[in-house]
UniProtKB/TrEMBL annotation:
Record's keyword annotation contains Zinc-finger: no
Keywords: Flavoprotein, FMN, Monooxygenase, Oxidoreductase
Domain Luciferase-like: 9-228
Cross-referenced NCBIfam families: F420_Rv2161c
Flavoprotein keyword on record: yes
Taxonomic superkingdom: Bacteria
Protein name: LLM class F420-dependent oxidoreductase
GO molecular function: alkanesulfonate monooxygenase activity
Endpoints of the signal sequence: none
Organism: Mycolicibacter sinensis (strain JDM601) (Mycobacterium sinense)
UniProt-listed GO biological process terms: alkanesulfonate catabolic process
């Protein structure tokens, strides 16, 4: 099981130093969250908390995840980065393809695109995109982005996007992996159909086990049972070596964690304290050899 550091809702000025420390102590990747803006009044409930409330406020710091990946990639050499998850629905697929290809090239193919639809009607409408039929539009967006990133002269004529022959150079020298987020049946089917993996929001170990089972069945339906597939998990109730061993047995391939939160510190803890948390976590889980026993 791999370990990924989440840098959600932390100060922007700490990101580069945290990436360097995460690589130094042995983390595999950094998960980058996405939020365009904070609307004072939300038309829809946030889907990943019991009461629908948002876990952040107007002053919570966010940075564009693609820009963050490029900045952190410039000071690291082995660490991977992926969005967890980028909200596709409010964006333009051609512009996004250019950005994703640029990050992939600048990081030496150390970038993966975690994608979701987006939950907030305001993010669609205020960016000039209809909220209606968002799922079908995102499916077509993924087709467009994959087509363009594969390189060469391409064209696309779909229901939502239409363009004649074009080329973006340079194309990434290796395919950019796509990780699909979401807990609904539609999202799981999308992940099994086109994804290189699935990424969760906050879930219990039991919920993860159930969802991974569903995904494995769906992959088999699409004749993809033997295709490498990542299960990226944010688990809220499996801690300690025994808990991590249970997650690995469940099928989790990538455990997304925030070590300083596990140590009882806050998002705004001092940078040095966060670095100490990273080192302790790595000693306990990454270098302890528990996976070899």
């Amino acid at each position: 099981m791999k370990y990924t550091l989440s840098v959600a809702m932390g100060p922007v000025e700490e990101l580069v130093a945290l990436a360097q420390c995460a690589e130094e102590v042995g983390f595999d990747a950094i998960a980058l969250p996405d939020s365009l803006f904070f609307m004072e009044k939300a038309a829809a409930d946030y889907p990943y908390t019991p009461d629908g409330s948002r876990m952040w406020n107007a002053d919570t710091p966010w940075v564009d995840p693609l820009i963050a990946a490029a900045a952190m990639g410039a000071v690291t050499s082995t660490l991977r980065f992926y969005t967890n998850v980028l909200k596709l629905g409010s964006r333009n697929p051609l512009l996004l393809a250019r950005q994703v290809g640029s990050v992939a090239n600048l990081t030496g193919n150390r970038f993966g695109l975690g994608v979701g639809i987006g939950w907030a009607p305001e993010e669609f409408e205020w960016c000039g995109v209809p909220y209606a039929r968002r799922g079908a539009r995102v499916d077509e967006m993924i087709d467009v982005i994959k087509l363009v990133l594969a390189g060469g002269m391409v064209e696309f004529h779909g229901e939502f996007y239409d363009f004649d022959r074009l080329q973006m150079s340079p194309a990434p020298s290796a395919p950019v992996p796509f990780y699909v987020g979401g807990h609904t049946d539609v999202a799981l089917k999308r992940a099994a159909r086109i994804g290189d993996g699935w990424t969760s929001a906050m879930m219990t170990g039991a919920q993860l086990a159930e969802t991974i089972g569903k995904l494995q069945a769906l992959l088999a339906e699409h004749d993809r049972a033997d295709v490498p597939f990542e299960y990226q998990a944010v688990c809220i109730d499996k801690f300690g070596v025994d808990g991590h061993r249970e997650l690995a047995a469940t099928g989790v391939t990538d455990n997304i964690v925030i070590p300083w939160m596990l140590d009882g510190l806050g998002f705004d803890a001092p940078l040095a304290a966060k670095q100490d948390s990273l080192k302790r976590f790595a000693d306990t889980y990454i270098h302890s050899g528990w996976q070899e026993k």
